[in-house]
Amino acid sequence: MPVEGRTILLTGASEGTGLSAARILASKGADIIIVSRNNPAKLSQAIDAITKAAKWPDTQRFHAIPADVSEPGYAAGVVAAATAWNNGYPPEIVWCVAGLSYPMLWSEDDALRATRRTMEVNFFGSAEMSHAILRAWLRNTPAPEEKTARLSKHIIFTGSVLSVFSMAGYATYCPSKFALRGLIDALAMEMRLHPDVPIEVHLVLPTAIQTAGFEVENKTKPQITKKLEESDKPQDPDTVARVAIASLEKGHHLITTSFIGDLMRWGALSNSPRNNWLIDTLMGWIMPLILAFTMWNMNSEVSSWGRKKRAGSAQALSHKIAE
Asked: Does the global pTM surpass 0.85?
């Protein structure tokens, strides 16, 4: 995935992993368009940071488009604005980074509302952008003699290891990320219908990332969920972006940023394109054994937690009756 001299659009890139990715891609010579909610100060600061990272600051260009990815129909206007800014050509690479999480137990009052919100942002925000940019690419087929005609376009989705592995406390979040997995596998096959416009589809599967959003999700995260994922140490945004971009440059389809992510990917490959047929097949055979132990351990943790909660509730009720 060469990026120098190409235009890359990233959603959710005014902070966190999106901003880290934009800075790294700018350092490799790309022109950058960032999309984020309408906060002029934050967008201006992000553009300044990206500009400072540029490989060729005198010739590279950077632009911000304010938009809310949860708004139905947002993507067509963003792609049109990006195309106009890019001299009539749609961006060659689009990376959907915007996302959020409100982890909680499914029995809580706000669980369905939280699930709908995560579907709006995490799934439909990315799905709408992919639909809009794919239509733009297919309408704007470059002439065979153009240099860009030889280079693949890329649509990159940002999922999570929870796109392939679910657990207690994430019932409000995992459906949106599992849905992305289904979408990208279907698109990877569908793009074979358009050999004249080579398009690659990718899904990045990071573990926890130390961002402002991670702090927000910890406010609603159940204690049992924190217990289950205590061995997963959050990565910093720069590391996630750097590792993901290195995998994108290798042409990988499902992209992980840690060994834990690799294990979860190997355990849920299904019909996804392989990064390495030999290694992925071997680990696909081994992972059921690893998952048998992992799931026994995690289910035991949940059962134990439930017994403690019930015992605590019974004890509290007993004290209340006695009073």
From this structure: no
